[in-house]
Design a protein that fits this description.
Elements (H helix, E strand, L loop, with lengths): L6 E6 L9 H4 L6 E2 L2 E2 H10 L5 E6 L3 H10 L7 E6 L6 H6 L10 E5 L2 E3 L3 H11 L3 E6 L7 E5 L2 E6 L8 E2 L3 E3 L18 H8 L3 E6 L3 E3 L3 H12 L10
Length: 241
Amino acid sequence: MIDPKIPVVILCGGQGRRLGSTTELRPKPLIDIGDRPIVQHVMEIYAGFGCRRFILCLGYKSEAFHGYFRSRPAPRDWDLTLVDTGEAAMTGARVKRIAHLIDTPYFFLTYADGVSDLDVWSLVDFHEHHGGLVTVTAVRPPERFGILALDGDRVTKFAEKPPATCYINGGFFVLKPGFFDFLADDDACVLERDPLERTAREGELFAFRHDGFWQCLDTAKDLDLLNALWQRGNAPWLHSP
């Protein structure tokens, strides 16, 4: 089991502009999938593996999160901390600004808009085994378009949106506190640029390959897909370990 004191840091500060007018009234992490917002789905993924301590890095419409958790309190055994990390701050700056709250050998970090059937126990085992500063979960999302294999003009294979051949950053990080030294307390600090690029150059960044379900909420089409899975009772991220 995971020590329930290990923090799960969730990035909740972005504006979600690619969802258009959907985020004008509420921030993307509070958009509902089924009967609750996606950020709560993310929290419940971790809670299913024994995590009980959550730190939400807020920015855009931060007051909406305070309002939500006042009206629908988190489970009593959850330790929830809401931190306003600046409306204009980028991801790296948001993480840097919660450094004073981390008092454990490692912590989790993820985005508020991605769900998965990831085995968090296996992720932690992998992280502890390699001994580096950072583990990122590598995923292969479906291609945006169907793929044709051609022999001259003849189609030899038709694949409707198969999984991508390359891996991408799927979030669900595990980090040691030493990673904070790679971050700047500057609104312009982007986690996914210099900080992670430097850890890669220094041999401190490792990838945990996850070939199971993963889906982000980035566009209106993603929202429709996630809600359709929920409505059909086929939401893989809800399955208990």
